[in-house]
Specification:
This protein is α/β, with parallel strands linked by helices. It contains 6 helices and 5 strands. α3 crosses α4 and α4 runs parallel beside α6.
């Protein structure tokens, strides 16, 4: 009976459904110390563009791999800072290598990176073939 009463009340008072809000196209929002709305980033043609710095990636940089293997994290931070200075919107971090303790390397790199404002102002993209390495970076 109460459903019928609600229906009668609505029809007697001629209530109309409210219009749906206008939603633009979806936006990808990321954040480091500074927020990043991917739609707000454009290339020289005016198209949305996201520049991902790949030099903190063992698979993408021999120099980075050599520094990580040697435990030289301060020079690794210099590489990350350089990428951000050169326009990277996101820093890709990959320390996944068979000859390296990836979990420990990811934890140490991220612990240092989050204390560097020049690096941590952009989002990090944690990259590894082993899920536990990604999780190690996310837990910090």
């Amino acid at each position: 009976p109460h459903i019928a009463a609600l229906g009668k009340c609505i029809s007697d008072n001629k209530f109309k459904p409210r219009p749906l809000p206008k939603l633009g196209h979806p936006k990808m929002m990321l954040s480091g110390l500074e927020d990043l709305v991917v739609d707000d980033v454009h290339n020289q043609l005016g198209l949305p563009f996201l520049n991902i710095g790949e030099r903190c990636n063992i698979a993408g940089s021999r120099k980075f791999k050599r520094l990580i293997m040697a435990g030289n994290y301060s020079e690794c931070m210099d590489i990350a800072k350089e990428q951000v200075k050169d326009g990277a919107h996101v820093v890709d971090v990959n320390v996944d290598d068979g000859m390296l303790d990836g979990v420990a390397a990811m934890q140490k790199f991220i612990k240092i990176a989050i204390t560097e404002p020049e690096v941590s102002k952009v989002p990090f993209m944690l990259d590894a073939s082993k899920f536990e390495i990604v999780m190690a970076g996310l837990k910090l």
